[in-house]
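Continuing the batch. This is chain 6 of the set; chains 1 through 5 are on the previous pages. Same settings as before, nothing changed between runs. Recording input and output for traceability.
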Amino acid sequence: MSDSNTPKGTPETEPSSRKKFIRETIEEKKPSKKKWLRRVLLLVVLAVAFGWIAALTFVLSEPRLKEMFAGEETEEAIQISRDSPEAETTAEAGSAESSESSTEANEEVLKETVEELVEGYLSTRESDEEEAAYTELVSDMATSLRRSMVTVTSLQASEDIFQQEYVRSQETFGLILTESSTRMLILTETYLVRDTETALVTLGNSSEYSASLVGLDETTGLAVIGISLDDMSEGDLSYVEPVTLGNSYICQAGDTVVALGNPMGYVPSVAWGIISYINTSQQGIDMNFQLIQTDIAGSSEATGILVNLDGEVVGWITQDYSSDDTGNMLAAMSISDIKGYIERISNGESMACLGVQVQVVTASLAEERQLPQGLYISSCVSGGAAYEAGLQNGDILVEIGEETITTLSGLQDTLAEYEPGDTVTVTVMRSSRNGYVEQDFQVKLGER
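Output for chain 6:
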């Protein structure tokens, strides 16, 4: 009978003799060496199988992947070989020194020979046979270069006075430069393609293609457009032939040249004549170049190229620098002086612009006239980067950033290191009552 004092529902005290619950520890049985060996072999077999499957998958899918991502391939940069005017001058000077003694010894003989050659040239030059020979040569050259020349047409939407929409078209000359990995590149005029996304290109065999803008340079008026190679037929790809850019530094007054493209104001047209003279220090913006003046009468709006008798391009026709007293005689920028600009716009690279016209103050000139050595600023382009920063005509440019500037090539190479919109420190020597003093200007570079 239970104790009456024990609360209802309270369990009775367990006997002390009751045993505790038995606790077990279960240990995992270690695998045998045979099982480990089987696992390792299975892993090796699976790894080898996976490798073979991956390799087979890559081999089968590679052509398809190349086809899918061909359009994303990085295009190689276009490179154009440069010419050196200094090398030509040095070679001519060395030749003159080596032949000085022989020239003096045979002066009379040489004089007679020259007179005979001049008389013979003049007599044949005025003959009908000579005229016919030159005409045939020019005709053959124009025919052979037809594969390198194109007509570029700009199509722009406009409105007449009655607000009726119509398409306005303009034509100019284009020159096939080279073929990149994705495009056929064509050199043409900036004014025609500056405000249009696409242009129509007509090849010499009358095939037509749409071209897009690659790059342009407002200061030289040059632009490059490109036709996608995927759009061109195999026949047209084999038909076109990139032109050869010659060395215009070896051109001389009296050389015969052929004007092709748009020399007479319409495309295509052709004319020929001789180089009348070469202005070796024509000033441009941030550059000087040789201006080739000819005796070829052309249009006041002429464009195109000058070609030597070897079929090489030696000049890009422009009337922007012609003087009033030469009338409509064609003039051209030396092709050797603008190869660097052509290369950069062919690669779609923007070019920084300081906006100055300069003359080189050489070491001898600096010593003779007591001037600092550098680049004498003859003109700051109104609204240009230098003008806005406070540079003036008469300043002598001596440094940009940390680069000392004493030559035009040094100026161009230094500007090539910057992008339009960059701010650089430009150091000039400015004339004062106490002589030339150094001044620094912060210049925000423009775009060519």
